[in-house]
Amino acid sequence: MANITTQQLAELIVGVARAQQAIVDGVESLKAGFKSGHLGPALDYAAKSRVTTRPLTLQELPARVLLQCMGRAGPNIEQLTRDLEALLGAHAATPAAPAATAAAPAGGTQSLDMT
């Protein structure tokens, strides 16, 4: 399998968000007020865009990109790439730490194994 770069992943996420935007526009053309009355509040909740005290997570990123697609300026690929690099870098470092601590008791002097 080919390795995907954060730039390519950002472009893929934007492409999916634009496809979702096309669906939203289709529903909006059938039912006026759908975006502002129904989708907007639900998407704000999913993106947690009003909560500024906690860092961005991978779960919130797609909703935020869709919100950017719904805006006038559209998504910023460079900023999205930086956000992905920060998020993926943080997630890559997290699983390695528990693995190192789990290996330490096996060869250490003290074990909690009660078998």
List keywords for this structure.
115 residues, mainly alpha, 4 helices, globular
Number of strands: 0
The coarse silhouette is globular
Arithmetic mean pLDDT: 81
Q: Helicity range of the residues? A: 55-70%
Order of helices and strands: HHHH
Quaternary state of the chains: single chain
Task: Give the low-pLDDT segments.
Answer: none
Percent in strands: under 5%
- The rounded distance between the terminal residues' Cα atoms is 42 Å
Structural class: mainly alpha
Radius of gyration: 20 Å
Largest sheet descriptor = none
SS element count, helices: 4
Write structural notes for this entry.
70% of the residues lie in helices and 0% in strands. The longest helix is centred in the last third of the chain and has 31 residues, at 77-107. The protein has helices at 6-30, 34-47, 61-70, 77-107. With 115 residues, the chain is an all-alpha fold. Helix 1 packs across helix 3, helix 1 crosses helix 4 and helix 2 (34-47) runs antiparallel to helix 3.
Brief rundown of the structure:
The chain is built from four helices and no strands. It is mostly helical and 115 residues long.
SSE map:
Elements lengths: L5 H25 L3 H14 L13 H10 L6 H31 L8
Helix pairs in contact: 1-3, 1-4, 2-3
